[in-house]
């Protein structure tokens, strides 16, 4: 039986929600999903449609969602609909909704910048070389199978999170004399979460199209989509 995937995209244009999700829609179709696309999270309030959805791929940075939409998403995931995404499209969505933040389990806080002498006033100020390090749990998980630690030069997300997430990979923010923290901060970079009968997958790498096409990142996201789907 064909499964259904709902792509919900929009919000801040800087994360290229249309082009970014377009990279993965052919994969979903090749994997047997009937894919539909919406540009407004209010679709989550349609209980009948959500009940028939096996996977939500969300790419909506910041923006807002109504109470009814967030409740609809929470109810659908608890009933078995998968939720997946990357970077700000899932980990920096609907900041004003504590119910959404609880569902996802991690919220973007910042992406530390370069040395003040190296900043130019554009988004590359936040492009740092950093390592994505697999956890012991990650090394044994189907999403990360066969992969090893890898480096990226892009935004390094600092994520506020809870203990209900299963962290498959982390990244460490070092101490720098030009930042105010005094010890290294380990932040989740890839995680899964079980919520009722549903599954949630998050990859914090994914700021730009080149990162989404990195072999490691693409492999992790493609496997994460399949893992989360009902």
UniProtKB/TrEMBL annotation:
Residues 5-228 form the ThuA-like domain. This is ThuA domain-containing protein. It comes from Microbacterium jejuense.
